[in-house]
Amino acid sequence: MSFHECAIDDGIAKIVLARGKVNAINEKVVEELTERLNELLKNPDVKSVILTGTGKFFTFGFDIPEFLSYPKNDFIRYLTKFTDLYRLIFTYPKPVIASLNGHTIAGGCMLAIACDYRIMVSGKARISLNEINFGSSLFAGSVDLLKMWLGQRPAEIAAYTGAMYSAEEALKLGLVDRVCSEPELESETERAARDFSEKDPDAFASIKKLLRSQLAEQIKARERQSILDFVDIWYSEKTWRNLQDKVIHA
Predict the structure, then answer these.
(1) What is the extent of the structural domain holding 178?
(2) 0.70 exceeded by pTM
(3) b or e along 95-126 (b: 16 or more beta carbons within 10 Å of the residue's beta carbon)?
């Protein structure tokens, strides 16, 4: 069973997360997205990529009930794959547009901020790195990307508080680039993808590498230790209890 759909139309590849009501991220989702992106990278007909979700969620983040059954070493393996995925998106030679169709939370926010451009639906949808609210930490990459888009002090506030931002609030912060209504989201996203597609692909890839390669290397150098720190906190007695409560009340 696949947890995503992919269609290519006029040089634009659209990847749609499709895993239950909230599009929760598990190891198979990460493996599928990684495989799909690498496949699209080899396709010269694909000029840009859209990443979106189904229903009212882009993705609610990690599948906590599933990961509560993971031993530490297995969870470290998963987190390595996950952070590799958002680093792949961050350095991807082709434009990647996040079409945020709904709630974009925790791990979902990490994937979104790795993209080149974010369009978010207005209304009840929220975007957040809210890990601190259930006693969890972040990763080196997620923090550095947050600082890149927001600046140091706003990133600190976002990370320390775990604030849940509306699309309009996220736009003011620089967390998203455009806000539109739900009926407009698809057309606005396709317009953005088409605009990116019209750029010279070699020039785009070169410029993106110049803009992001140094930060990507810095992230990579710090990521492993941040994963180990994350795991130590995740499996601590207090956070473990919070995670179990979160599952019960979900």
Answers:
(1) 4-197
(2) yes
(3) bbbbbbbbbbbbbbbbbbbbbbbbbbbeeebb
